[in-house]
Each structure stands twice: as C-alpha cells, then as structure tokens.
Design a protein that fits this description.
Distance between the termini: 75 Å
Order of helices and strands: HHHHHHHHHHHH
CATH architecture: Orthogonal Bundle
Mean pLDDT: 81
CATH superfamily: MetI-like
Number of domains: 1
Number of strands: 0
Helix content: over 70%
Shape: elongated
CATH topology: MetI-like fold
CATH class: Mainly Alpha
Low-confidence stretches: 1-43
Length: 327
Amino acid sequence: MTAKDEASARVPAAQGTAGGTVRDASPVRGTAPGEAGLSRLAMPERQARRSNSLRRFVRRSPIGVVSAMLLIGALVVALVGPWLGTGDPEALTALAMFAEPSADYPMGGDYLGRSVLARLVTGLRISLALAVVSALLAAALGALFGLVAGYAGGIVDEGIGRFTDILFAFPTILLGLLVAAVMDPGTPGVVLTIVIATIPVFARVARGPTLSVRATEYTTAARVIGASPPRILFRYVLPNITTPLLVQLAFTLSGALIAEGGLSFLGLGVQPPQASLGSLIRDGKTYMELAPWMMLFPGLTLAAAILAINLLGDELQQFTDPRLRGR
C-alpha cells in the first residue's frame, strides 16, 4: 500500500472518531443522559423498589400491619365520626347526667349530660390532629437543621449542635409551663411545645446519615456538574435518609400524643368547650368513683393509640435495620 493509500485510509477513520465524539457530546443525542436523564432512568427503578419494600413489610411484619390498620381505623373514626350517628358532643341532656353505658349512650354520659362517645370521637380527632401537625412540623424543621449541619460541617455544624443541646435541656412539661406563661393555654401552645421539644431529635437523626451520604460518589458528581447545595440536599441527600426519619416520625407521634394528653390534663392544652383525650381524662378524674366510664374510655383510647404507634415504629425499625431483622 502506498503512502497515499494509507493517508486516505486514515482520514475516514479519523472522521468517524471525530464524528462519534461530537455525537456523544451533543446535548440532544449524547449517550450521557445528564442529571435529568439519570433521574428519569432511576424513577421506575425507585418506584419498583418502594413497591417491593411495601410487599415485604406486609409479608414479614403482621404486627406492623395490624397496628397500621388500627391507626387507619382511628383516623377514619376521628374524621367521619360526626356522620356515624355518634351525636352532638355539646348537646346537654338532663336525663343523661352520669348515665351508665346503654343503647342510647354506648359510653355513658358525663357530668353535664353530654354523650361520652360523641366527645370521645371529637377528642380523638383533635388529639390526633395536634399530634400529626406537631410531629410533621418538628420533622420538617429538625430534618432541615440536620441536613444543613451534616452537609456544611465546621462552625455551622457546631452552632446547630449547641442550639439543639439547649433545646434538649428543657423537659416537655416544664417547657409547656413556660409557653403557657408567655401565651394563653390552648392548642397553639401545645403545638409549639411539642415542636420545640422534638426538633433536636430529628436534627440528630438527620445529621448522622447526612455525614455519610455527602461523601458518596453521586453527591460528589452532583457538585462537579454544578448543582447548588440546596438541590444536592433535597434531591440527592434527603431521599436517602428518609427511612430513619420515618421511623423517628412514628415514635414522635406517640410522644406527641403523650405530651398533648399530659398538657391538657394539667389544663395547659385544649380548653373547654373543646375536648381532647387529655382533657376528657382530666374531666373524668373528678368523678372517677361516681362515673368511672368518663375516664375509662378516653384512657383506653389514648393507650391503644400510643401502643399501636409504638408497635408500628418498632416493626419499621426492625424492617429497615439489617442488624435487627433476625431478632
């Protein structure tokens, strides 16, 4: 082969190589899909993984399934209770004063002739609403603090850590007394007390996994392609630390129910004529010997709700933690 033939053979090969390079680098036809392409490719896989995890949890955790069904049932009763014929929680009937449980009053009457069942449904709705709102607010704020502290590190991490230590120093009841002294007793004070008391827990739960996730290859790649810190935190870090946050959220819900019940029992929470599980127990305490059902049914309802949430949290923790699956 002559030198001219060799040169002509090399030219098409070089053009093909150059053409391949240009096509790979093209934002339209390139083989590297980029950040948006990776997200689209990973979405079906992520959805399939979540579906498989749910099926495995249902198969391996019958106690968790039963607890979840009890909680769903409690939520349904709390939401649609007024349309189930439970009666008016504020209706006063003289003949129903201290009435024993019967067909007309399945859970008896209170000291004013009101239906204990109707007030229990209302109290359950208010208690669950306060617990859910408080837990979600605490989870959002605490997770944000933990994400920022774990990702930023340095003086930011140190400052957030000292701030959460200060919040940890206040017992819930003492904090409730302080809030009630500043604000009038009521539902806003209950929510504020629970949020302040549980923010440090979520901050610490989020900070640990964030320290590990920020050192992974995909977060490093996101920084290399120019992703902003908020985008990295909420798109790459947060989805990978949701499992411990969800487990902690379950335990926080039970703690919020206990805190609401304690604060309302002391008169610092829900105020009359509204009812919550804690205020119903407080009202029934005075007439415990004369009408024990006034305190019995709200107490059993609160205990059952807390037990179901704690069992669900335990099952979620054992399911998500490989070290506990064999126990």
